[in-house]
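Model the whole thing, not chain by chain.
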Amino acid sequence: MAAAAVGVSGTMVPKIVQAASKGLKPSVIWLHFQECTGCTESLLRSHHPEIEDLILDLVSLDYHETLFAAAGHQAEAALESAMKANAGKYVLVIEGAIPTKDGGIYCKIGNKTALELAKKCSENAAAIIALGSCASWGGVPSADPNPTGATGAPMVLTDKKVVTLPGCPANPYIFLGTVLQFVTFGTLPALDDKGRPLFAYARTIHEDCPRRPHFDAGRFAQQFGDEGHRQGYCLYKLGCKGPATKASCSTMRFGDVDAWPIGVGHPCFGCTEKAVGFRIPLHETVPIDRPTPPDTYPAVGAKQGKVSPVATGIAGAVAGALLGAGWAASGKLGEKSDEKRKED
Amino acid sequence: MKVSRRSVLKVLAAAAVSTAASAVPAIARERKVAPAKAIGMLYDSTRCIGCKACVAACSEANHLEPDRSGIADGLHLAPVDLNGRTKNIIKFCQDGEQQSFVKSQCMHCIDPGCASACMLHSLHKNERTGVVEYDPQWCVGCRYCQMACPFNVPKFEFHKALPKIVKCELCRHRVQDAAVAGADGFTRYPRGQGPACCEVCPRSAVIYGSREELLAEAHRRIAESPNKYYQGRVYGEKELGGTQVLYLSHMPFAKLGLPEFGDKPSPDVAYTVQEGIYRGFIAPLALYGALAAMVMKNKKSAESGDGAKGGRS
C-alpha cells in the first residue's frame, strides 16, 4: 500500500525488499517537539508494511523517544553517536512544532531547546521530513494566540529542503511511501511549493470526495442529523473545508480502517492547510476559489435577464419629461427671438 | 422656419433617390478563404457527455472570474449563457425524443462580422492562424461587434468600470511554440498551449487542429456512419462563408442554436448596403442637393417675408 502511494508498481516491491535487505538500511533520527505523538501513534497502527518491518528491517531507527528502550543520558548518547556515525546519510524526522519565542525555552529535551536540536540534527541529514501539521507549519501549538511562538520545521530550517507531510495526524502511508522511495531509490518525491509530496497533496479533498456528486447536484446536509445528513449529502454547509484543503484523504482514506471524517458524517477540518486548520472555525464555510459546474444545464436559447416593469416605467417617464422639457424650451427660444426681432 | 408641404415632399424625394441607388447591386465583395494554416475546432455533439470540464478549464485558462449566477446558492460555476465572465459554455437541448449537449463559443468565422464592424480593428483576424483576435488597447467600447456577430458571441464586461469585450480567442495567449503535426494526424501545439477546452475533453468531443484536417476528419466520421449525423453535413464548412469552428450533430443544427444562415458571409450584407448608398456618390449628392435647395428657398422666403430686416444688431 505504501508502495502504491508513491506510484511504484507491484513489480518494484522486490526491489524495495532487496534494497532494504542489502543492509542499506538508512539511519533514522526521530525528534519529538511540541506535539501529541499522534503521528507516531497512527504510524504504529499501519500494517502495509507493519511498523516492526519498517523499523527492524527497512530502516535503522536510531533515535525515537517514544519507541526507545533507552532513557536519559543513554538515549542522548545514542543520538550523538548516530549522528556522528551516519553523518550526511541519515533521515531526520521531525514531529511537532518548534517554539521560537523567548529563545525557544518552551520545549527542551536533554536541556537543549527544540530550536537548537532541530538545527543541530538537520546539519548533516540526507533528508528532512516534517511529519504532521505541527512540524509542517505549526499545527495546534501555533493556533491563536500562539503563546510559545510555535512554528514549523521549514520556517526554522530555512536553508534546507524539508519534506512536509501535514495532517493531524499525518497519514502514515504518505510517510511510509516517502521513506520507502528514499530507501529504494535514494530520491525524494516531487514536491509542491510548500514541500508537500505531489502524489498525496496535489488535489483538494473536494475534488475526489465520495460525496461530491451531492455537491454538484446541490444536495446539502443543512444540519447535523437532518434528512440530508442521514442520506449522506454533501457536508459543505456544515463547514466542510474540503474545497480548501489539499490532502489525499478522499482517495487513500486514513490508516487501515478506511474511516475518515467525511466518511463518518463530519465535515473536513482542513488539518493539512496552514490557512485553514485550527484557524477557521469548525463549522464556518470556506469560499470556493475555483467553482466547478453543477449537474444542471442551461437550455439553448434560454430567456435570461428581466426588465422590470417599474424600471421601464421610470425610464419612460424620464424620457417623456426630457422630451417635453425640450419642446417647451424650444418654444421659448422661438418666442425670445421673436421678441428680440420686435425690439429691433 | 415653417415646415411646408413642399419641403417635406422634397426630403421624401431625396430619400427615395438614395433608396433607389442602394437597390442597385453592389460590386461583389471578394469571397474570403481560410488561411492555409487556419486553426480550428471540431465539436461532435454525439460524443459530448456534458461533463463541462471544458467550461471549468476555459474559465481557469483564461483567468475569468467565475460566474456563479446560474444557481441561487452561488457555489457553482453556473453561467446561463456566454457573458462577460464566460467564453465557453455547454448547453442542453431537448426536442421530443432527441436530446443533445452543445458547446458554444466563438465560431472564428473566415469572414467575421465582428471584425468588419470594428472601427479600429480591435477585433481582427490573424492572417496566419485565422483566429479572430481582440486587442483591447484599440477598443472604444462601441459594442458594434455584438450587433454584427450572427452567433451572438462577443460579450461586454458590464460589471467592470473599464470594460472589455470577452470572447474565445482559441487560447492564443497560451501558445508559445509552433504547432506541429501530432501522432494522431492533427496539427497541435505542445500540451498546455492549445485551447484548454480541447485539451481537457475526456471524450475528444471537441478537438483542435488545422481546419483542413478537421474538415477531413468530420467527413471521415460522416462517411463511417452515414445515418448518424444530421443531413450528413458539417456545420461551419460553408455557413456564412465558412467558420473555423466546425460542428457535427445528430440533431438539427437550428435546435442547437446554430441557425441556417446560408453561404453568404455576414459582412456582405452590410457591405452591400454601404456600397449601394455611396455608389457613384449619387445618393449623397442628391440628398445634400435637396437639402441645399431647401435651405436656399427658406432663406429667400424669410428675407422677402420680413421686408427690411437687417439681421441681428
